[in-house]
Amino acid sequence: MNTVQRFSVAAVFVVASGVASVVAAPSLPAQLVTHWNAAGDPDGRMSKTLALALVPALSAALLVLFALLPRIDPLRENVAAFRPYYDWFVVVFSAYLFVIHAGILAFNLGYEFDFTLFILAAVAGLFYYIGILLGHTERNWFVGIRTPWTLSNEEVWKRTHELGGRLFKLTAIVSLVGLLFGEYAIYFLLVPALATAVITIVYSYYLYRKLVERDGSSPDPGI
């Protein structure tokens, strides 16, 4: 399967979001629940017109953006090296948005379920694939853990992304375990996600400084 075919799969999810909106529209109330608190209780609403259009429009715009980014990246040859993983991320992300949109429609059509847990399960799946993507990402301007230190050194980029990939997968697994803890489940996502962000930033700086000390100068000024 090539890039065009993979993006076509992503486009199917975008179109499906629009079709779901059209099919569900006659049976929906004028105001849709679109936000829930940590306990799973609805606490925010949006007009039907905006709620039905938001995700399909956002998905379409992001699909165009995702198609454009590899073309404008100064290191586009590096993106080509992991392009299948990038393309599948676009598919996974488009599917994620479709699932969230379908869940919102289902809830407002009267199906009862804990929407917060539903969201957390979807995010866990997205995070796990991000972990896979990070493990294959080459240095570029748009995708990955882009700190001043990863962008300045190939080894720092590689080792930081290896660690980040493992941490994102671990966050996904912990998030799924958290689904067993009801209203506390969100913390099983937020805490490891925040820890992942902090750890990867600090690690990239530490590793860069370590290489500077080892080599006696700023290594690989890079891009």
Structure description:
The protein is mainly alpha-helical and 223 residues long. It folds into 2 domains: 1-113, no CATH class; 115-223, no CATH class. Helices cover 71% and strands 5% of the residues. It has 8 helices and 2 strands. The chain has helices at residues 3-24, 48-72, 76-81, 83-108, 115-134, 148-152, 154-178, 187-215, and strands at 31-36, 42-47. A two-stranded antiparallel sheet has the order 1-2. Strand 1 and strand 2 form a beta hairpin. Helix 1 runs parallel beside helix 4 and helix 5 runs antiparallel to helix 7 (154-178). The radius of gyration is 20 Å and the shape is globular. The mean pLDDT is 92.
Architecture blueprint of SSEs:
Elements (H helix, E strand, L loop, with lengths): L2 H22 L6 E6 L5 E6 H25 L3 H6 L1 H26 L6 H20 L13 H5 L1 H25 L8 H29 L8
Antiparallel strand pairs: 1-2
Helix pairs in contact: 1-2, 1-4, 2-4, 4-5, 5-7, 7-8
Subunit organisation of the chains? single chain
Radius of gyration based on Cα positions: 20 Å
Query: What characterizes the major β-sheet?
Result: 2 strands, antiparallel
The coarse overall form would be: globular
Helix content: over 70%
The tally of helices reads 8
Instruction: Give the integer mean of the pLDDT values.
Output: 92
C-alpha end-to-end distance: 31 Å
Count structural domains.
2
Low-confidence stretches: none
Order of helix and strand elements from N to C terminus = HEEHHHHHHH
Query: Which class of secondary structure composition applies to the elements?
Result: mainly alpha
- The strand order across the widest sheet is 1-2
Strand element count: 2
DSSP strand (E) fraction?
A: 5-15%
